[in-house]
Amino acid sequence: MADGERKRTLEVARRAPLAGELSGRTVLLVDDDPVHLRHVRDGLAPHGYVFTEAHDGAQALSAIRESRPDLILMDVEMPGLGGVEVCRIIKANAGEDGFGFIPVILMTARQAAGKVEGLELGADDYLVKPFDMLELSARVKSMLRLKALQDALVEKNRELDRANKELAARREELLALTRTDALTGLSNRRAFEERLNDEFARSRRYGAPLSLVMLDIDHFKRINDSFGHPFGDHVLKAVAQTARARLREVDLLARYGGEEFIALLPETGPADALRVCERVRDAIAALELEHVGGSGKPQCVRLTASLGVATVPSGDLPSAEALLRAADASLYAAKGAGRNRVHQHAA
Which of 71-75, 234-238, 337-341 has the lowest mean pLDDT? Predict the structure, then answer.
């Protein structure tokens, strides 16, 4: 824990759990002297702590991996890995993916030897044997309060992170709603126009072909007048699903307004765009939608669509707006030529 963070944590440590509330906290005692281990354990036992023990550094690391104690009381001088080396390993793995924050109190029989080194390595406190049990008890309580507060801060940060992720997800959902047609589930006009500008700029930059298709359901007003608006909505959804199924994942299909749909086909030249449009037109003409009138007798309803398509690069289409106007003009040409057909803008 950095000095600044430790200071902020200690400032609010007064609000951490009181001594009685620390009962049940786990304290790992690490010492190769069984007499000293018993002395420390007996002195701290009245506070209700749970004790685990290790007799050298290797055992201490194993115990930490298994149980994640709340505090470590560790002798500096032990066979094999000493207390300072173990402390170095603990503090080097103090992240959430490692041991987390575990306060360490080092103990030694030597007066000042190793104290500066131990504290510089991240030891949170240091005691010289023999020490007064009241002093040990006070320091243990202080470290356990620090640990409890740190745990609470970690949990609060996790809650905040979860809340931020949930907020981001809700924001994405809201953003999707503002770009989605509620009836058909397709992109709406706003989303299409944003994508059009991006795709047109990319086409200009790399010289890649880009085709724009406008589709209009023929005689849609007659369908609404004859069968009612709920059935008209059913027709719109059926056309949207049919057209979407004939396009690629990279293609964008949007509801442009009323019974009009619009599509962007990246990396698609004039010949391929014409084939796509004919495929969509054929699929719509093959639809057989069932309408059940007031008599309860089902009636098969057929429909057709007219499509206009324009493609860039083209010398007479210098802008995204020009491309859109050319496709729109081609759509009206298809309708003027008798409907249920595709008309392609001639460069």
Answer: 71-75
Q: Concatenate the DSSP letters of all residues of 125-191 into one string.
A: EEEESS--HHHHHHHHHHHHHHHHHHHHHHHHHHHHHHHHHHHHHHHHHHHHHHTB-TTT-SB-HHH
* 318: pLDDT strictly greater than 90: yes
**Predicted confidence (pLDDT) per residue in 103-136, tens digit:** 999 888 765 555 565 566 568 888 888 888 888 8
| Residue 46 predicted with pLDDT over 60 | yes
- Please tell me the distance from the alpha carbon of residue 223 to that of residue 229, in angstroms, as a whole number: 8
* Gap between the Cα atoms of 321 and 128, Å rounded: 82
Residue 188: phi and psi, rounded to 5, are: -100, -175
Domain 3-158 shares a fold with domain 189-344: no
b/e map 126-152, b = 16+ CB within 10 Å: bbebeeeeeebeebbbbbbbbbbbbee
Are 193 and 252 spatial neighbours (Cβ–Cβ below 8 Å)?
Answer: no
**Residue 15: its pLDDT value, please?**
45
* pLDDT, greater one: 139 or 279: 279
pLDDT band per the 50, 70, 90 thresholds, residue 18 = very low
Q: Domain limits of the chain?
A: 3-158, 189-344
For 286, phi then psi, to 5°, come to: -85, -10
Pick the CATH number of 189-344 from 3.40.50.450, 3.40.50.1820, 3.30.70.270, 2.60.40.1930: 3.30.70.270
Question: For residue 255, which phi and psi values (nearest 5 degrees)?
Answer: -90, 120
> Which positions are annotated as active-site residues?
259
Kindly write down the DSSP assignment for every residue of 198-227, as one continuous string. Answer: HHHHHHHHHT--EEEEEEEETTHHHHHHHH
Which CATH fold topology does 3-158 show?
A: Rossmann fold (3.40.50)
Amino acid 278: pLDDT = 97
Type of residue found at 273: A
pLDDT at 14: 42
Instruction: Kindly tell me the burial class for residue 52, based on how many C-beta atoms sit within 10 Å of its own C-beta (0-12, 13-18, 19 or more).
Output: middle
Kindly report the backbone phi and psi dihedral angles of residue 290, in degrees, each rounded to the nearest multiple of 5, phi listed first.
Answer: -95, 130
- Hey, which residues does 99 pair with through a beta bridge? none
